[in-house]
Amino acid sequence: MRWISFRTCERHLKQKVGDLSAQPLQPGGRWRNVPVGVPLSIRGPHGSDERSLTGYHPGARWRRFPGYLQHFSSWEQDRSDDHNEHISPRQKRDAYSGVYSGKRCRMESCFDFSLCERNGFKVYVYPQQKGEKMSESYQNILSSIEGSRFYTPDPGQACLFVLSLDTLDRDQLSPQYVHNLKAKIQSLPLWNGGKNHIIFNLYSGTWPDYTEDLGFDIGLAMLAKASISTENFRPNFDISIPLFSKDHPRTGGERGYLKHNTIPPFRKYMLVFKGKRYLTGIGSDTRNALYHVHNSEDVVLLTTCKHGKDWQKHKDARCDKDNAEYDKYDYREMLYNSTFCLVPRGRRLGSFRFLEALQAACVPVMLSNGWELPFSEIIDWNTAAVMGDERLLLQIPSTVRSIHQDKILSLRQQTQFLWEAYFNSVEKIVLTTLEIIQDRVLQHTSRSNLMWNSLPGGLFTQPQYSTYLGDFPFYYAKLGVKPYPKFTAIIHLVTPLVSQSQPVMKLLVAVAKSQYCAQVIVLWNCDKPLPAKHRWPATSVPVIVIEGESKVISSRFLPYDTIPTDSVLSLDEDTVLSTTEVDFAFTVWLSFPDRIVGYPARSHFWDSNKERWGYTSKWTNDYSMVLTGAAIYHKYYHYLYTTYLPASLKTMVDQMSNCEDILMNFLVSSVSKLPPIKVTQKKQYKETMMGQSSRASRWADPDHFAQRQTCMNKFASWFGTMPLVHSQMRLDPVLFKDQVSILRKKYRDIERL
């Protein structure tokens, strides 16, 4: 056995590494020109560098608080010739050029975090220049940003900048193509080489090769691009967005097609596709081969050559047969009656079929090698799609047939969640893009994978509220925990205290007697001074009196730090509730922590004559709202009400001193996609409130009802859809109204109501 000393081994190792580093970089080669002592880059999950070879800082992976650590060396420094002494000028150009000049950009090297430290994550949109044309799709993108909570009109407060120049369509043959874009962008005073800018793009390149070249140098800007390849995608910097049509709604968006689950989850067709067939050029190979697996029974893959002005000049022997077969089937009927939908590449990697399949609850089967799927940084697409390979097309039918029905059901449900959470409107696509960037900037408060990939989704789960999943109303079951078994009552008071017999005094005593009550907060929104402490009744739980902020009605939904419990019992001062009713409502809420649970129910309807939404308080077996005058919900909705909703809606509510309860119902239903829950009917609640003689009572205002009709339509307009969901379920105590002894019933007092 031959022994080698450590120093000898070290000398041999350095010699070997030195020999390797001297070798020039060859196309397809595995070795890079790296000086001895410089660590090799670490390959990320997308096959590209996670760390710059020359700009790597050992503490980068542990950066938590932006601004406390300096960002890495700039791209210009990374291009130093000192590290390329063995590469010819031509090889340097090949290595560093490509589609973008900042090809190795990452957040650490090409983004200035210091701009986000003073004012948080704010986004500035350049003012539109006179005479510049703009597509409707790009206008929708800019409107979505300007209507979001991220927007700032002051560039001095901005962390991120968005061009007003339309960069969506960079196909030179398109009528939407903007000429001289390079010069126009370079002349912008805030451009700064593209740093802290994001560029949106749907189409790039043109016939015949459809490259990803945008026709101008994006510099250090991030790229939010459709049909981007993994080769050109810069991980943790660029964002892959879906290809959407010009008809894609700006706000709201349609719900997914899946209305109920069918067991087993099989449909009429197993696998379908209907689209263009390209006879020549890029993207033609895959679609030209689809006829090999088409069987006209449960695998229906239809293509047509009949597109373009001169299609007949190029048609082949199969065209006439394909066209005839193509016309036999209705695309929508196929889409909604198939278990799987094939999503092959077109001229570009992305396709409209992707979003169409998601909406139709048709599990996408991806057949586009090298496509960086939309929002791949946050979405686990293995839970909603099947990843195919263009080279293994003939194996696709057998592969999808082998998927178990339980897995199919799971995939289908996830398509609906992802469609409604991130893709069904331009606004959600844009907001998801911005939230991803914000998570990068504020890494210490970024969302977890579970937040992004489970209900209600990342847009409604604000990590600034908390990074612990148990602080949200959505994850108790997943964590195997239960909500805190106490509530905080908040009584909204607008009438001065003149008598100990006022309804609010009786309400306070009844609520404080509940075994589940932790404390009572009295929100004093009255113009009169606060009453002395001895004016309040003695209770076994703390009573905290808070003066409302600006005395506006929305202050009842502020996220007060004095709320120690998960749940809030929201009460109007003229509410009449017994201790038993409070106890029962809270026990129901413990099983439904993501919903509003309470007593006074209302409903909405569509008035076809006036073509507007209507509001009704009629007593029927149907409801869609539970008013917050006597309701329990999770305190997280206070935070969402304050931070998520626009100031315009809250200002309207405050000016009218009305509709705040409707707005809260809109918010909770839009998050949960579920109706509220009404507990045991209490008809006198309505008559009691209507009978109040107090001039401060909102119910005494003759304009009260008309205002609520207006609110319904204003709210629906902002949400872009009607989020309220009708329900006919009412939860009563066990043995409620049953002909048995009252002694056998737990909530006996409710029987006497």
UniProtKB/TrEMBL annotation:
Entry-linked InterPro entries: Exostosin, Exostosin_GT47, GT64_dom, Nucleotide-diphossugar_trans
Gene3D superfamilies, per the entry: Spore Coat Polysaccharide Biosynthesis Protein SpsA, Chain A
Signal peptide extent: none
Segments forming domain Exostosin GT47: 118-403
Pathway: Protein modification; protein glycosylation
Keywords, in A-Z order: Disulfide bond, Endoplasmic reticulum, Glycoprotein, Glycosyltransferase, Manganese, Membrane, Metal-binding, Signal-anchor, Transferase, Transmembrane, Transmembrane helix
Membrane topology: Single-pass type II membrane protein
Protein family according to the UniProt entry: Belongs to the glycosyltransferase 47 family.
Descriptive protein name: Exostosin glycosyltransferase 1
